[in-house]
Design a protein that fits this description.
- This protein has one domain.
- 49% of the residues lie in helices and 15% in strands.
- The longest helix has 31 residues.
Length: 325
Amino acid sequence: MARDKGSVRTWAEYAALRGFLGVVRALPSSATFWLSDRLGDVAFRLDREHRATATDNLARVFGGSPDDARHQATAKAVFRNFMRVGVELALFPRLLRRRGLEDLVEVTGREHVDAALAPGKGAVVWSAHVGNWEVIAALGEPLGMRLHTVGRAMDNPRIDRYLTERRAEYALSVIPKEGGLPRIVRALRSGGCVAMLLDQHAGRSGIEVDFLGRPASTFRAAAELAVRFGLPMLGGYGIRVDPAPRFRLEFEPPLWPDPDAPREDEVRRLTQAVSDSIGAVVRRHPEQWNWLHRRWRDKKKRKKRRDGPAPAAERTEPSRLEGTT
């Protein structure tokens, strides 16, 4: 739930962020990323809750104990990666001016982008919290995408506004997930591309598919939009390949809905295909994915909750598209 813009905590968090970013921008890039890694190490030490979530998730997928050295090392790298993503978002304009887009990001699978955009109808673009997921927005226009991004609003409205303004420097618009369905539909109908992150727990309104060998509630709205409007689903990942930084934006062959198949079957097939793709990338680059998130939830615990609305953390926008025409 968003907090009051005028609250002391809201202002304090916002001031701390702007102050930190001011320091970041004043430092040479090498010093900035050294500082970012050190802050990630501090967060790894102090944030016991998310550290435990990460190591538990890693043990769940790769086996062994959460205390294993390999899981601890991976979790530490994940904290560093998250810290870097925030710093890189602030530094992107400077990095682009100094190094140029081609030196900063290598694109693989450009032919898949061209294939998805060839019909001229737009596309549902998807990614995951792996590497730096902001890279796709930065490359949208150069790759010919009229890109709109979708994301959850942050609890701090001032920080949310600031981050939205930064993202809007690259995308045509930033659409909030809550209440944003009409804007998503308008963007797709106008031939635009809408980008979503599809690797988090979707709560009660999600569809349960396999993810890394275990059932997980997964967002279905992206597949529903693709099926409803006959659009390709184009997946891409901003993989970090050099701490300088340098990225490889990897696009995969587009997923096309079958117009003759039952809608619900297609939604499940496409959602599972997305989940399989994300899982494969996570296995290749485990240190770059968001293991800090509780991706798998215990169904028995959910059933024991009292009757009533879903908890705020699990509330998602209704996936049904009826009434949007």
